């Protein structure tokens, strides 16, 4: 695969969850309909992170390190607030629910990353006189991302 620009990347969400949490086009993430969230300015790094476990034996000078439990990560999105954007409205609604959502990130070459998440925060940032009014959403991933090649 060749390198590509991120310009044209979109993020969509669905209040429905797939029957299977995989790349099956009949029952997995690709079977869902996603609503695009408009005006996102950046999609930062996301994905699974292992907790670090350390052990400091007295008889040695070296710290022993091991992988512990896995946290599927956090994704914080910032976008220009648009009250008429259906994707932003869907995220705002999901914020008031304890239910997971499905998320799809689609890249310009047609590749997709899918995962489930909880919408943990929805904050408004009016900014200053030379700012665009922005909203910020924090997603806590509840399953590891699934990549589907173009």
What can you tell me about this protein's structure?
- Strand 4 (49-55) and strand 5 form a beta hairpin.
- The model has no long low-confidence stretch (mean pLDDT 96).
- The protein starts with 9 loop residues before the first strand and ends with a strand.
- The strands form two sheets. Strands 1, 2, 3, 6, 7, 8, 9 and 10 form an eight-stranded antiparallel β-sheet that branches. Strands 4-5 form a two-stranded antiparallel sheet.
- It is globular, with a radius of gyration of 18 Å.
- Helix content is 7%, strand content 42%.
- It is mainly beta.
- The protein is built from one helix and ten strands, in the order E-E-E-E-E-E-H-E-E-E-E.
Write the layout of secondary structure elements.
Blueprint lengths: L9 E5 L20 E2 L3 E3 L6 E7 L8 E8 L2 E7 L5 H10 L5 E6 L5 E14 L8 E8 L4 E3 L2
Antiparallel strand pairs: 1-2, 1-7, 3-6, 4-5, 6-9, 7-8, 8-9, 8-10
Which descriptors apply to this entry?
150 residues, mainly beta, two-stranded antiparallel sheet, 1 helix
Termini distance?
Answer: 10 Å
Number of strands: 10
Structural class: mainly beta
Helices and strands, in order, run as EEEEEEHEEEE
Q: List segments where confidence is low: pLDDT < 50 over at least 5 consecutive residues.
A: none
Radius of gyration: 18 Å
């Amino acid at each position: 695969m060749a390198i590509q620009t991120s310009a044209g990347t979109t993020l969509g969400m669905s209040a429905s969850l797939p029957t299977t949490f995989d790349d099956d086009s009949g029952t997995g993430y690709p079977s869902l309909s996603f609503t695009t969230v408009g005006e996102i300015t950046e999609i930062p790094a996301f994905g699974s992170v292992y907790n670090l476990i350390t052990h400091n034996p007295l008889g040695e000078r070296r710290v022993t390190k091991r992988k512990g439990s896995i946290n599927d990560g956090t994704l914080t999105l910032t976008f220009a607030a648009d009250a008429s954007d259906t994707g932003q409205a869907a995220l705002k609604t999901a914020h008031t629910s304890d239910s997971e959502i499905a998320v799809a990130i689609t890249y310009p070459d047609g590749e997709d990353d899918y995962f489930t998440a909880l919408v943990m925060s929805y904050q408004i940032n009016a900014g200053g006189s030379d700012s665009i009014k922005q909203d910020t959403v924090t997603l806590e991933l509840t399953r590891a991302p699934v990549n589907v090649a173009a």
